[in-house]
C-alpha cells in the first residue's frame, strides 16, 4: 500500500535584522498557503526561520542576545502559523532559536520542531554539530559564532512517527556529517527534514572554487539520502542577508540520492514533490541492508575518537 505525501520545501529570502516576528510569520503563512494550494500536506521551513542569522555578529548585551530566542512555541507571534496549519491540515517543520530553563539553569539551543496537521508539536530536535567559533576571528568578512550562542543539542537524533511514516530532523551543519543520517537510518527513518543558513563562500578557504559550496551542500545530502534509503527535504535561507550572501539551493532528494525538486531563485519560493515513503525500502533491503552487512566490531574508532590520529612514522 502506497504511503505518499506531497511535501513542500519553503525557501526564504533574506530576513532583515529589524524584521519583526509578525512580519516573518506572515511570510511563512503565505508560503504555507501556496504549498497547500499545490496539494502539500507537509511544509519544511529553514533553520532560524523567525529571525535573521544573528550568530554573524558579536552581540553586546544579554538582552539583545535573548531578543533572538523563543521562550515558548507557539507564542503570541507564532500562534497564527499553528492556527493556519491546523485549519489547512498541513504539518510543518520550523527552525528557531530556543531559550529554556531546566532545574534553575537557562539553556540556549538551535532547535527545530515538527508540528502535525492538528497543530500539535510531534517532535523536537536540537542541533548537535555546531560550526564556527565561540570567539570572533580576526580578518574574516563575517563571523560565525554559533558556539558562542548555542549549546550542543541534548536530544540526540530521535525519530518520530507522523504522517504514517518515520520522520527525522537535523539542522544545517548536521547535514554534512554521515553519522547524522546513519543514526537516523538505524531507527528506520523514511524522511529527514532540515533547514540551513549557509554563506555561499567559505571564508577559511579563499582559494576554494566558487562552485564547490553548492556542490558540497548537495553532495552531503544526496549521499545521506542514498546510503540510508531516505527522503531528504532541505530548506535554505537564500540571498544577501545583512551583507552576507546565502547560497540557497533548497531541494527535495529521493532515497535514490537524486534531486527531484530544486529551488530556482534566491527568494521566498515553494518547491514540491510527491514522496512515497516506501521508495527507499528496496535500498534498505539490498545494498544497505544494515542487519545483513554492517560490521560494528570494526567501527570502534567512530565513537572512541573525535580527531584524526595518523599512524606513527617508521
Please give the structural blueprint.
Layout lengths: L3 E8 L9 H17 L4 E3 L17 H5 L12 H10 L2 E12 L2 E11 L5 E6 L19 H4 L9 E4 L2 E7 L6 H8 L5 E6 L15 H17 L2 E6 L1 E4 L2 E4 L3 E3 L5 E4 L6 E8 L4 H5 L4 H4 L6 H5 L10
Parallel strand pairs: 1-2, 2-3, 7-8, 8-9
Antiparallel strand pairs: 1-14, 3-4, 4-5, 6-7, 9-12, 10-11, 12-13
Structure report:
By secondary structure, the protein is an alpha/beta fold. It has one domain: Carbon-nitrogen hydrolase (Nitrilase/N-carbamoyl-D-aminoacid amidohydrolase, 4-Layer Sandwich), CATH 3.60.110. The chain is 24% helix and 27% strand. It has helices spanning 21-37, 62-66, 79-88, 146-149, 178-185, 212-228, 281-285, 290-293, 300-304; strands spanning 4-11, 42-44, 91-102, 105-115, 121-126, 159-162, 165-171, 191-196, 231-236, 238-241, 244-247, 251-253, 259-262, 269-276. The strands form three sheets. It has a six-stranded mixed beta sheet. It has a six-stranded mixed beta sheet with strand order 6-7-8-9-12-13, covered by helices on one side. A two-stranded antiparallel sheet has the order 10-11. A hairpin with a 5-residue loop joins strand 12 (251-253) and strand 13.
Strand-and-helix sequence, N→C? EHEHHEEEHEEHEHEEEEEEHHH
The major beta sheet can be summarized as: 6 strands, mixed
Which CATH class is shown? Answer: Alpha Beta
Mean pLDDT metric:
96
Q: What is the helix tally?
A: 9
The appropriate CATH architecture is 4-Layer Sandwich
Report the count of strand segments.
14
Strand order of the largest sheet: 5-4-3-2-1-14
Can you tell me the CATH superfamily? Answer: Carbon-nitrogen hydrolase
| Uncertain residue ranges | none
Give the percentage of residues in beta strands: 25-35%
Q: Cα distance, first to last residue?
A: 60 Å
The proportion of residues forming helix, as a percent range, comes to 10-25%
The rounded Rg comes to 19 Å
